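Chain A, query sequence.
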Amino acid sequence: MPETTDTYETHDLISSDRVEGTVVYNLQGERLGTISRFMVNKRTGKAQYAVLQFGGLLGLGSDYYPLPWQILTYDPAQGGYVVNINPEQLENAPHYSDADTPTYDNDYNWRIYSHYGLTYA
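Chain A, predicted structure.
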């Protein structure tokens, strides 16, 4: 039986495999990168971060930037997520490479949320 969009996306829900690889733009329409993965809170079941893959060449040498889920807005016209950040702000944000994946502890979570002007609870 062929897979249909209805199976993977509704008005309010989207399948994780459709989020991964989605482009992220800033408010000026500049492409910042793509969503590599997202992190789900085990207790609440809510997506806490979209991890943006940014920089590098063809995925090599890229870094990963956890973005608090609430700063992303899906824009159907662009077919991607939009965030109110610029490349310079992103470059200074907490990030990691494949070689140094962080522990998402309270300190790291606080640093991420603070960088984007949010309160980590």
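Helices lie at 5-8, 16-19, 87-91, 106-115. The longest helix spans residues 106-115.
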